[in-house]
Structures are given as structure tokens and as C-alpha cells.
UniProtKB/TrEMBL annotation:
Gene3D superfamilies: NADH Oxidase (3.40.109.10). SUPFAM superfamilies: FMN-dependent nitroreductase-like. The keyword Oxidoreductase applies. The gene is bluB. It comes from Occultella aeris. This is 5,6-dimethylbenzimidazole synthase.
Length: 209
């Protein structure tokens, strides 16, 4: 069963869920399979479909990934603290920082950790849009499919400084590169609403900049 969401509602209310991930409610593996089946309909360069999905539910492996994530997040948090805060976004950035801190603390306890990866014996030099453009739309489709099934996800790449260690932990071959980590769980509370964004006219360029 999926939630009765219109396409626009699904697209505008799929949020990064951090504090509201339900750490105690098991997620049926069949639901994750359904999300990946939807994701496999996404476009890929040349329709090659060289993506792979590593779904981690083993408690010890989730805990180990959580430790790598927390280690990487600690370095990121220190760097973030040195950045100037954008004018008018102090409260919003504080909320994001607080929820990010929480996710780093509990990552290893999230019921399902899904890693989207792609075959890439060598990363291309220069522009890598073609490579990652063949994976990331599918990963976002996974997040949308999860939202439609009452699950929350968070899009993060902060584990990637330890990509090789995570690959060793999970037996991922060297020619498969990880692109994004999607912690997945039921969410607490009611539902989600569209987030405040800059007006379209501040970012829309018609025919020229």
C-alpha cells in the first residue's frame, strides 16, 4: 500500500528525515525491495543500468557503518563551524545542524542502511556528471518510493571518506563505487509539508543569465 499523495505532493514533501526516523520499528525487507524496483525505472546513461544497491540490516554491520559515519561527521562538523552563517538563515541552519548531529549519533541504529552504487573501474577525470547522473536519479527515486510507503530517508554522502573501509566491511568489489547512503526507517509524527525555499524568480534564468 502506498500513501494517497499526488505527484506534486510526493515531490514537495519528500524531506531529509533525521530526528524523526523511528529506530525501534522494524522495516519489512519487502518494502525495501519495492523501493528498489521503482528506482530501477530511473534513467541512466546509454540505458546501461550499471547500478547496485547494498541494503544493510545486519546489526553489527550497521553499527560499524555508523562509527565510520560519525567519524567523518566529526570532521565535517568542525569545518562547518568555521563557515560564516548566511544572513537570514541562522535559525534554519541551526535546525539542520541539530538534526545532522542527531543523525550522526544514531546512524548505526537506523533499521535499514541502503547504499546506492555504480560500476566504475576508474573515476573519469574532469566532469563526472555522466557517471553520477546514471545513479543519483535512481537513488532519488528510491527516496520518493520510500516516502510513498510511509518511510523516511536522509540523503548523505558523509561516509564516503571511508568508502574503502565500508566496501571491505560489505564485500563490495573494487570496481563498484558508492554514491550515496540512504538511512531508511518509518518516521514518527504525522507527515511532512513543503519546506521554505527561495522564490523561483531568484534562480530562474530565461534565455540568458
Amino acid at each position: 500500500m502506498t500513501l494517497p499523495l499526488s505527484p506534486d505532493e510526493l515531490l514537495s514533501t519528500t524531506r531529509s528525515v533525521r530526528k524523526r526516523l523511528d529506530l525501534d520499528r522494524p522495516v519489512p525487507f519487502e518494502l525495501i525491495r519495492e523501493c528498489i524496483e521503482v528506482a530501477l525505472q530511473a534513467p541512466s546513461g546509454g540505458n546501461r543500468q550499471t547500478w547496485h544497491w547494498i541494503v544493510v540490516t545486519d546489526e553489527a554491520k550497521r553499527a560499524a557503518i555508523g562509527e565510520y559515519y560519525a567519524r567523518s561527521y566529526g570532521a565535517y562538523r568542525s569545518e562547518r563551524a568555521s563557515r560564516p552563517v548566511q544572513s537570514g538563515r541562522v535559525a534554519a541552519q541551526a535546525r539542520v545542524a541539530s538534526s545532522s548531529d542527531h543523525l550522526a549519533e544514531v546512524m548505526g541504529r537506523v533499521p535499514v542502511l541502503t547504499i546506492a552504487a555504480i560500476e566504475a573501474p576508474e573515476l573519469p577525470e574532469g566532469n563526472q556528471a555522466g557517471l553520477w547522473g546514471s545513479l543519483l536519479p535512481a537513488a532519488w527515486s528510491y527516496a520518493l518510493a520510500a516516502r510513498a510507503r510511509g518511510l523516511g530517508t536522509a540523503w548523505t554522502t558523509l561516509h564516503l571518506p571511508y568508502e574503502h573501509e565500508v566496501a571491505d566491511l560489505l564485500g563490495v568489489p573494487a570496481h563498484v563505487r558508492q554514491g550515496v547512503l540512504l538511512p531508511t526507517a518509518y518516521f514518527t509524527g504525522e507527515t511532512f509539508r513543503p519546506a521554505p525555499r527561495e522564490g523561483v524568480d531568484s534562480v530562474l534564468h530565461h534565455d540568458s543569465w
